[in-house]
Amino acid sequence: MSRLHHTERAGLGRRDLLQLGLAAGLGLLGGCARGQAQPVLQAAPETLPPLWRRRLPRPWRFQPLEAKPGSSRAALQIDPSADLLACGDGWLPEFTDEALQPVDAAPLQGRLGGQAGRFLEALGPVRAARVLPVGVSPWVMLFRGSEWLGGAAEQGWDVLLDPGLRGQVVLPASPRVVVELADRLDQPESLGRLRRAALTLDDRQALNWLLQGKARAAVLPLQRCAPSLRRDPRLHAVLPSSGAPLHWTLLLRPATSREPLPQAWVEAAWQAPLLGQLLARGWRPPVPSQQLQAQAKAIPASLRSLVLPPQPVWERCWSLPPLEDAARAQLSRRWRQTAP
């Protein structure tokens, strides 16, 4: 017997049934509205630490964002309904100021450290208001085996030009990062020589190249290789005392979003106990260094000097803000002229 027939036999009149139907309909519509309003955070899977990403509060949901190296923003496959984007600073030039809105998170912005402040200052006030750094990682040299560690400690980035490594180095797919490294080398014709030392330009698959024995060194952000450094004793990383380029993880609010940034979620990653767990995985929040020292013991000894290097080394690291059109054109010319 159906529920409707049972209700009629119980003595409910026509008016009562209409009221029940109206209430049920409103409930259904309310459920649909809530489903449609579920805010979305979109990011490439490797952008945010899974430990933190899984703590995204309800009703937020995470949606993976796939991007091909060297592709344009159209190829990022950004969901038009996304309310928050997480990306590396290399993607920042793909967004216009009009495509973004201020992050409106003054309590978080007020906690940023000196490196983050310099990075935002270089963006200019309009763009800086639309960007929230949530993580920072130095690019490091990663070696399979210990043969080159002494040279790396003594020579820094120049060890990448050692004849014994020629054709066995995996460099970043970003020409900007490669040019920046070359310009820091104390060698003539450094950019051309560095490119000739490369087996390939593929930082996303750098670990595979190393672990398969096809390369002996790679350059990639510490946060991407820290878990492998903890698991595989064959791998060793070096952060030169001369400093390194910095890789920033940023949160952006699309102009179409009506959702405020989930500040409590970000704050949780910047304080204990989650902070210590993230530091142990190579993820460093962009807050002042002294605020991180209390969690230093949570970091494995083999990673500690990489995640929290001495302050003079950290201060010698540098960011790569977007280039103006003239500088970008000059970089493109240099890149073409030094092709192997």
Q: Specify the helix fraction band.
A: 25-40%
Radius of gyration: 25 Å
- Which geometry do the CA atoms define? globular
Question: Which strand-content bin applies to the residues?
Answer: 15-25%
Low-confidence stretches: 1-35
Measured distance between first and last alpha carbons: 80 Å
Q: Order of helices and strands, N to C?
A: HHEHEEEHHHEHEHHEHEHEEHHHHH
Assembly state here?
single chain
Number of strands: 10
Number of helices: 16
Mean pLDDT: 87
Which short descriptors sum up this protein?
alpha/beta, 340 residues, 10-stranded mixed β-sheet, disordered N terminus
Describe this structure in words.
The protein has helices spanning 3-9, 14-36, 50-53, 106-109, 114-123, 125-128, 149-155, 175-183, 190-197, 206-211, 222-231, 263-269, 274-279, 301-307, 311-316, 325-337, and strands at 40-43, 61-64, 84-88, 100-101, 132-144, 169-171, 198-201, 217-221, 235-238, 246-254. It has 16 helices and ten strands. The relative contact order is 0.15. With 340 residues, it is of the alpha/beta class. It is globular. The chain starts with a helix and ends with a helix. Helix content is 39%, strand content 16%.
